[in-house]
Amino acid sequence: MAADEEPSRTAGGCVLAVLAGAAAAALFAVDEALGVLTLVTVGWVAVWRSARRRMSDSSATPPPRGADPESDDAARRRLARARGVHDPNGVMCTYHPPREEVTET
């Protein structure tokens, strides 16, 4: 291999897959229950690790254009104005008054 060439990630993944397959075959050859238990444990750990990974903020949906997010104070004021009302059937509903645009001076 030349000095400027790097080993490919695909080739490394193939080598690891072959080694993992050989290890699984050896475990199944020793004892079938041991092979099944090991595969289930390895699968559980892989799912657990992938679930623990934090998602980057770059994949978050951007806010709509022209709509500024409310501040915490504005959200609290809006929630304080919300009130419960009953419809004609007696069902309790939360009424939120229409949003008022406030310009900062």
In N-to-C order, the SSE pattern is HHHEE
Strand order of the largest sheet: 1-2
Overall spatial form? elongated
Mean pLDDT: 80
Binned, the helix content reads 40-55%
What is the straight-line distance between the termini? 68 Å
Number of helices: 3
Beta-strand percentage range: 5-15%
Number of strand elements: 2
Major pleated sheet: 2 strands, antiparallel
Helix and strand composition category: mainly alpha
What is the radius of gyration computed over CA atoms, rounded to a whole number of angstroms?
Answer: 29 Å
> Which consecutive residue ranges, at least 5 long each, have pLDDT under 50?
none
Structure description:
Helix content is 50%, strand content 8%. With 105 residues, the chain is mainly α. It has a domain at 10-52. The protein has a two-stranded antiparallel ribbon with strand order 1-2. The mean pLDDT is 80.
Write the layout of secondary structure elements.
Blueprint: H1 9-30, H2 32-52, H3 72-81, E1 83-86, E2 92-95
Antiparallel strand pairs: 1-2
Helix pairs in contact: 1-2
Summarize the structure.
This protein is mainly alpha-helical and 105 residues long. It is 50% helix and 8% strand.
Q: What key attributes describe this structure?
A:
two-stranded antiparallel sheet, 2 strands, 105 residues, 50% helix, mainly alpha
